[in-house]
Amino acid sequence: MRIPVVWSPDTLLHVPKHEVWVGVPTPGTELPERVDVILEALAEHPRHEATAHDDRFLDAVHDRGLLDFLRTAADEWAQGPYDDLVGQDRVVPYFFQTDALVAGMTPSPPAAMHARAGQYCYDTMTLVGPGTWEAARAAVDVALTAVDLLGAGERAAYGLCRPPGHHVTPLGYGGSCYLNNAAVAAEALRAAGHDTVAVIDVDAHHGNGTQAVFWERADVRYGSLHVDPAAGWFPHVFGHATETGAGAGAGATRNLPLPEGTGDGPWVDAVARLAEWASDCDALVVSLGVDAAGDDPESPLQVTADGFHAAGRVLGDLGVPSVLVQEGGYDLANMGRLVAAYLDGHGG
């Protein structure tokens, strides 16, 4: 079965330009060319352009303050002095209103744009520029159009979402992500009548944002396998096996952190463990990051195309309606064939 591909040309509008890592500007890796190489690799799959959707499911996932900030941030930054003063034409925070700063006091809202950015962005790597909002919002429409295809009778659909989204919490963005496409897709599947939805995240990094969205809910389970954050990997403070949800969602989160250097065998075994855990769910969202590959610049894992194909077969064998949402993957030379390998496995 050739799984249909949903995409939008507007996802190319976000150009990160660079990141700021430990205070040093470094070249961006979440590039528009990611879309091109994936489309080329999936040329034989049916292709659909995303259609516009309202904000119902976006509002269910994210705080309105975050959405309003992202919608206007690039324009507000451009109206300020930042490009003339320091040559910075992208929104990048330098000030973060942490608990250490507040110290139990009640802060006043910051007036400066460069301070307000730190209310919503939790790192210095995730810059906002012209086209960022349009691309991120288009990625949401890609995910929702994939859900629509399931409603029209498809058993699985792939959303070529870019920028990725699994690091975005209800209140904040980071990790090269701006809006949580997988969480939006899960909300839409719930609204379409699926009682229990599983989000299985195979990206090399833990999806702290998706975990946060569903932390206290039992109707959407979140399971992730990823490089161990205790080894020093993003998002550093989340993704440990002890994190299992809270309140009504107790037990509905499962994390399988993996050692650096993990290859196909134990990686696919971890996918199988999550598949068994989610086997009684009615629908599936796969956060399909392919940055667990050995040549990817953002991960120390060693998964091959065979591993991604096997993972696709394991999750496809669950036999439930599935939305596959693109997350990470930054090796332009190989990521297209890795996505294709997964889709071939999932489609059987």
CATH C-level label: Alpha Beta
The sequence of SSEs as H and E is EEEHEHHHHHHEHEHEEHEHEH
CATH homologous superfamily placement? Histone deacetylase domain
Largest sheet: 8 strands, parallel
* Helical content (DSSP H or I, runs of 4+): 25-40%
CATH fold naming: Arginase, Chain A
Overall SS class? alpha/beta
Question: Beta-strand percentage?
Answer: 5-15%
Low-pLDDT regions? none
Tally of individual domains: 1
What's the gist of this structure?
This protein is α/β, with parallel strands linked by helices. Helices cover 36% and strands 14% of the residues.
Structure notes:
This protein has helices spanning 33-41, 56-61, 64-79, 82-86, 99-102, 113-120, 132-151, 181-191, 208-213, 264-277, 305-316, 335-347; strands at 5-7, 18-21, 24-27, 47-49, 156-159, 197-201, 220-227, 253-258, 283-288, 322-326. It is an alpha/beta fold and 348 residues long. It has one domain (5-62, 128-347): Arginase, Chain A. Helix 9 (208-213) links the parallel strand 6 (197-201) and strand 7 (220-227). The protein is globular, with a radius of gyration of 19 Å. It starts with a strand and ends with a helix. The relative contact order is 0.14. The model has no long low-confidence stretch (mean pLDDT 97).
